[in-house]
Structure formats: C-alpha cells, structure tokens
C-alpha cells in the first residue's frame, strides 16, 4: 500500500486505488484527470520503503489501480515545457531518485521528515492558533460573489446573535471592482475601512481573498504590464493573456524578484489601508501558466511547479501564519494553513464529503500538518455551477461533526439557515473542538515542529500492529494527533458503521457515549486490533475514541 503523491479531485487512500492509468504530467492543477493543487515527489509504502524523486526531473506519473504506479522522466508528455527547452538547457531526462528503506512505515516516514536534514521539511513554528481554536466565517459558499458592505455587516451580526465564536471573518470573491484590484469596490463598500473597524469592535479579525491574476480591466494591469511584472507569452515580453474562472487576465511573474516585491508591497498597503489582518490566497497551479510554461519568464525554471512555490513564498511573507493557501510546492517549512481544494456539497464522487479524510491524510503525509478542510457542507455547487440550495441537512450535520476533529472549522453556509436543532449541534461541536480537541491539536503541533510526533491528522496505522493490512487500507477513520480516533458517518442515511480499533496492545475508551464516563461500563473500553461491528451513531453523534 502506497501513500503520498498528490492531492486529487477524486482522492483515494491508499493511492493504489487512484485511477490514472493513462498518466499525466506531475504538475499542480485543479482539473479532472490531472494531479491536484498540492503535490510532492514523495511516496512511501506500508513495507517501509520511501521513494523521493529529484525536483528537476520532468516527471510523468501513471497509476493503474491496485496494479502499479509508474514514474517516468519525459519532456514530450508535458504541454507546459516548450520543445526547445531540453536543447537550450542541456538537461537530461534521467529519472533521478532516492530510495530509503526502514523497518516500518512509521520509521521511514519519520526519517524522511526529520527536523535535521529530512527530505520533507517541517515548519519551524506554529501557525495562528486562534484559527485552530475558533471557526473561520467566510462569505463565499453562502453569498458567492453577491456581497456588499451591508451583507457583510449583517452576516457578522448573525454570527454574534447566534452565540458563535470566531477566529476571523473572511471576505471572499466579489469585493473588488475588477479582479486584480485587491481593493474594495466603493459602490458596494462605501466605507470599507469603517466596516473593518466595526468588525474589529465586534471581535472579528478580517481577511480578504486574493489571487495571482490581474485582469485586463484592473487598475493594476497597465502598471504591471509596463513594468514587466506579468508572465510573457514570447521572447518580446508581451504578457500572456489567459482565461481563468473569473475572466481574462495575466499572471504575476513571481520568478521576477521585482514583480514579487511589487505584489507583496501592494498587499501590505492594502492591509494598512483597510486594517486587514491577512489574506486567503487562491489559485497558483501550473495549469494557469501559458502553454510554454516558464520558458519566457524572468527566470527560466526546470520545473514549472517552481512558479507555485514562488507564489506561496511571496504570499507567506505578507500573509504569515494566519493565511490560507490553496496550492503549494516545497513550502512545508512555513507555518500557514494549507486548504483542501473546493469541495462539492455531495456525499461522494468528485470533491465530495468522502474525499475529505483521504485528502487531509495525504496533506499530512506530504508535510502540511495545518490542514484547513474548506467550507463545512461544501461550496453549494452542482456540476460546477453555483446553486442557491443549501447542502442537505444531514450532510451538513455530518460535515460539522467531522470538522470538529480537524485542525480548523470553517463555516459559510450558516447553521441557523436550517433550524434550531442544527444550530445547537453546531454549537456543541464548536465548543467540543475549542475546549477538548484544540488542546490535543496544539500538543501535536508542538511535537511535530520539534520532530517528536508524526502529524496532527494521523493515519490509524500509526498505532497498528506491524503488517496490519486492515489498518493500512481504512480510508474513513483517522487520529487527531495520536490521542483520539475518529470514525465519522460518511454515508447518506446511515445511523451505524463498523469501526476499526488499531493496536492489539492498546485499549480504547468510547468518548461518544455519555455513560462511558464510568469506564467500568460494559463495552466502554475495547481492546485494539479488532472491528466494532454495526456501531450505532445517531445524526447528532460521531464515533470517537480515546487511546488509554
């Protein structure tokens, strides 16, 4: 069984289950049948074997489910590298890689991510802890881009009136006059600075949504074009114009130090002008580069993913430990929150609820412990378009329950849009997260930074017996830190599930059932290394167990 690799739209755990038998260039993307927003050239197996491929290899990866994973070095199969690139640089297509072998997967992964000289770096400090303790509230899934000052202020009032805590209010798409302005549209936000000040007085911090795109209509386009800050389409420096999900524009050339400094300084000015605390950084994948990749950028790069890294590096300098990032490449040493790609409001399939745990575990394996699992209930999309209907009540409740055990909770669709019962369930799990789960998350985060612990979202095989094939393949359970085992309901209509408790030498305490405060009660403490079959879990419950 193999782990690591990349985030996928249809995420699987282990990655043996992924169907990519026709293969794709190993570059970041947000498209189907391609590799995803976050990836690393790192794979390791249940037998304690790790493979790490060098960064400058033009890598192409195919996965035939349960048969083989094929790594290939080839320029020909990547449409992001020009045909003259190999000749101009003298690069070879040798598949250069390192193999490390250890006694078991825990040992080899610990070695590959060790603090002193690991192949995968660890962050040197903790992220913003208020985001880990209290919910993020975003305008996106509920309002999409139809926002203005009165809507944002009313949203904040609703949060306070329903007695919810917050880490910040995130003003997403729709606040700019033109994409790439990164400033508030005065016709929609007549007093944005006053609004932010009012939100501060209510106890909110405030962030806004930004991208690496400057649209043609933006007030910043001419300046960026004339200064050579945009990725060109050819050697004469003409900016490449591309279509992204919000129109036509060009991409900031982060290989140019002056362009990166301009972008960073501009966002710092935006922060100071309005009193913002940080930003949500979107996009950054190589699929939004010109077809000739980085052939004509300020600095030509052997790997187009270097653009993704440089974008994230610029972002973290202005966003700090409070920012969230959607795409990343070799940025594990920084302390920002790594966001899962947008999830749909569905139970399974592409981007569905069932992909949350496999994706969070994959992020952990790739060295991004501070996982932000996107909006509770998904983005209210149907077939890629905005949908006015909310996620189903049942799906929304199950999503709240799962989120309570991950590093962050993020709301947009609001509990009170349903009924009082849903609001009460949400308040219960927000309180559980901030008073119980948060302590274990912080302990695990400190341990991870020091090199002593595996991760905040941990696969259950971390506590399993060596060679336990069941633990290696369970894709709907995880450990919060290394203390709480979490087994949510992920199937529509289900009110029971089978729970696998790993580790034959471990005793697990049932924390879901109130009567188990008395540990002597029958069935409250169970030995590991076995299934608990047909375990009843009502709609307002989640199965979770404490390692004794």
TrEMBL record:
Keyword Lyase tagged: no
GO molecular function: hydrolase activity, hydrolyzing O-glycosyl compounds
Keywords: Glycosidase, Hydrolase
Pfam family, one: Glyco_hydro_31_2nd
Protein's GO biological process: carbohydrate metabolic process
Annotated Glycosyl hydrolase family 31 C-terminal domain residues: 456-514
SUPFAM superfamilies: (Trans)glycosidases, Glycosyl hydrolase domain
Domain Glycoside hydrolase family 31 TIM barrel: 138-433
Family to which this protein belongs: Belongs to the glycosyl hydrolase 31 family.
Protein name stated in the entry: Glycoside hydrolase family 31 N-terminal domain-containing protein
Source species taxonomy: Eukaryota, Metazoa, Chordata, Tunicata, Ascidiacea
């Amino acid at each position: 069984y193999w782990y690591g690799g990349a985030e996928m739209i249809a995420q699987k755990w282990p990655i043996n289950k992924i169907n990519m038998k026709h293969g794709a260039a190993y570059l970041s993307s947000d498209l189907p049948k391609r590799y995803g927003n976050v990836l690393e050239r790192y794979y390791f197996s249940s037998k304690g074997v790790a493979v790490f491929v060098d960064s400058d290899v033009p890598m192409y990866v195919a996965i035939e489910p349960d048969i083989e994973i094929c790594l290939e070095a080839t320029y020909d199969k990547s449409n992001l590298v020009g045909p003259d690139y190999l000749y101009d640089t003298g690069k070879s297509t040798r598949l250069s890689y390192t193999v490390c072998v250890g006694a078991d997967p825990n040992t080899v992964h610990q070695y590959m991510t060790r603090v002193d000289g690991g192949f995968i770096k660890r962050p040197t400090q903790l992220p913003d802890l208020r985001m880990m303790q209290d919910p993020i509230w975003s305008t996106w899934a509920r309002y999409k881009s139809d926002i203005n000052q009165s809507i944002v202020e009313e949203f904040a009032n609703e949060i306070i009136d329903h007695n919810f805590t917050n880490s910040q209010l995130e003003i997403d798409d729709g606040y700019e006059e033109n994409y790439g302005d990164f400033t508030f549209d005065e016709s929609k936000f007549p007093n944005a600075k006053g609004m932010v000040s009012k939100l501060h007085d209510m106890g909110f911090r405030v962030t806004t949504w930004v991208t690496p795109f400057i649209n043609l209509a933006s007030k910043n386009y001419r300046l960026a074009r004339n200064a050579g800050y945009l990725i060109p389409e050819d050697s004469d420096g003409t900016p490449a114009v591309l279509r992204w999900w919000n129109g036509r524009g060009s991409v900031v050339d982060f290989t140019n130090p002056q362009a990166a400094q301009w972008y960073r300084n501009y966002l710092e000015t935006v922060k100071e002008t309005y009193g913002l605390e940080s930003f949500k950084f979107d996009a950054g994948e190589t699929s939004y580069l010109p077809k000739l990749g980085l052939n004509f950028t300020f600095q030509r790069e052997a790997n187009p993913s270097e653009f993704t890294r440089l974008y994230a590096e610029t972002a973290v300098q202005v966003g700090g430990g409070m920012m969230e990032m959607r795409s990343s490449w070799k940025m594990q040493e920084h302390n920002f929150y790594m966001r899962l790609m947008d999830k749909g409001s569905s139970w399974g399939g592409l981007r569905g609820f069932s992909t949350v745990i496999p994706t969070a575990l994959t992020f952990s394996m790739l060295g991004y412990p501070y996982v932000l699992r996107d909006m509770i209930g998904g983005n209210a999309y149907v077939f890629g378009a905005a949908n006015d209907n909310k996620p189903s009540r049942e799906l929304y409740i199950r999503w709240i329950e799962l989120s309570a055990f991950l590093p962050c909770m993020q709301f947009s669709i609001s509990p009170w849009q349903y009924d009082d019962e849903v609001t009460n369930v949400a308040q219960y799990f927000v309180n559980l997260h901030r008073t119980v789960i948060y302590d274990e998350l912080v302990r695990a985060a400190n341990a991870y930074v020091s090199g002593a612990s595996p991760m905040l979202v941990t696969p259950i095989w971390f506590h399993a017996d060596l060679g336990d094939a069941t633990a290696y393949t369970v894709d709907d359970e995880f450990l919060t830190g290394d203390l709480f085992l979490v087994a949510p309901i992920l199937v529509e209509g289900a009110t029971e599930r089978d729970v696998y408790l790993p580790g034959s030498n471990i005793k697990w305490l049932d924390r879901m059932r109130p009567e188990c405060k008395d540990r002597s009660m029958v069935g409250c403490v169970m030995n590991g290394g076995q299934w608990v079959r047909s375990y009843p879990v009502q709609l307002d419950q989640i199965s979770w167990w404490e390692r004794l």
